[in-house]
Amino acid sequence: MEQNMEFFTLYQKVMSKYSRLLGSGSPSFILPENIDLKQMVVSSLTNPGDKVLILENGTEGHAFYDLVKAVGGKPVKFALDAHLALPAEPLRNFLKKETGFKFATLVHCEKASGMLNDVQTLCPILKENGILPVVDSAFALFGNPLDVRRARIDILLGETSGVLSCTNHLPLVTVSHEAFHKMEGTSSHDSLLCFKNWQKERAFPYDIPTETVNEIGSTLDAIDADKALLLRHTRVSAAVRAALIAGGLALYGKDGFSGTFSAFRVPRETTASALLQALQNTPDLPIFDSSALLQSPMLTIDHTGTNGTEEKMLLLLNTLSQVLPSLGFPLKGDMLKAFRYHITDPRN
């Protein structure tokens, strides 16, 4: 779809800033809300019979397995303990035995569990073995450190939700020259190749409203100006987890903690639905039921962007402190006190 020069200039400016903030020299693109970006990426890269490595420790990661299989690829899973971040050395050893992968998929942060994978370490291992890394960072972006160039990521999936907190939740994708080159050998018609010559042709396959691009641009300007953004997410998330532990609640993860989401086990004295129902008396608390996804009674706290303020987390913890004892769970310690102590801890 041909665009006028004013829109072209705006789009180029906004998406160049997005790439820069990711530490990437590759172009980035906005897709419509109804596009399944995971599916499109897989279709863009996979021919029938292609061997694809799926690094998995959660439901977001497993979704790639099913998508690769659906287009005739041969997915091979690398999965260990879902309560731990994916480890580097076992991956190295795995790739000594398993070879011939065209590309690999990896989730930066699993939303339900809050499990953060170290893409800065894992992706270079993939590249050393001739494997093109595809990373879904939709639920980690700007709340956790990321340098796309240093991590040697070829395709990065993002979204305008989370820390970006835009009105519309649109897919974002960053694609390297090498990834575009790999796509040229793929037979799929549903391909990101439609973006390859966007600068030359000044045309886009999808109609993105100007006001949407402007909103993304304004949000990126705010992120660029907020030099304490990463530190704030690190401190708030660490303080939230410390508070949960102080109260006697068990975290889902053993390591790999994210600045964007944290999951904890629902005490056996109650249920996830009963706890959420009791919490509803305080509106707009950033917490949701992740039990079905994690196959265990779990709740997940969203401390991304505007949700991740000290005030909002204190309100959530205060409400939990009142509700849990009323449901039969005796708190072991003062969650508010633990949060306030850890939020100022210089080690965070």
What would your notes on this structure say?
The protein is of the alpha/beta class and 348 residues long. It has two domains: 5-225, Aspartate Aminotransferase, domain 2, CATH 3.40.640; 229-343, Aspartate Aminotransferase, domain 1. The chain is 42% helix and 14% strand. The chain has 14 helices and twelve strands. The protein has a seven-stranded mixed β-sheet with strand order 1-9-8-7-4-2-3, sandwiched between helices. Helix 6 (148-151) links the parallel strand 7 and strand 8. Helix 2 packs across helix 3 and helix 13 (310-326) packs antiparallel against helix 14 (335-343). The chain is globular.
- The H/E string reads HEHEHEHEEEHEHEEHHHHEHEHEHH
State mean pLDDT (0 to 100 scale): 94
Tally of separate helices: 14
Morphology: globular
CATH architecture of the largest domain: 3-Layer(aba) Sandwich
Coarse structural class? alpha/beta
Strand order of the largest sheet: 1-9-8-7-4-2-3
CATH class of the largest domain: Alpha Beta
Biggest sheet statistics: 7 strands, mixed
What does the radius of gyration come to?
A: 21 Å
pLDDT < 50 runs, ≥5 residues:
none
- CATH fold descriptor of the largest domain: Aspartate Aminotransferase, domain 2
The tally of domains stands at: 2
> What is the first-to-last residue Cα distance?
48 Å
| Residues in helices, as a percent range | 40-55%
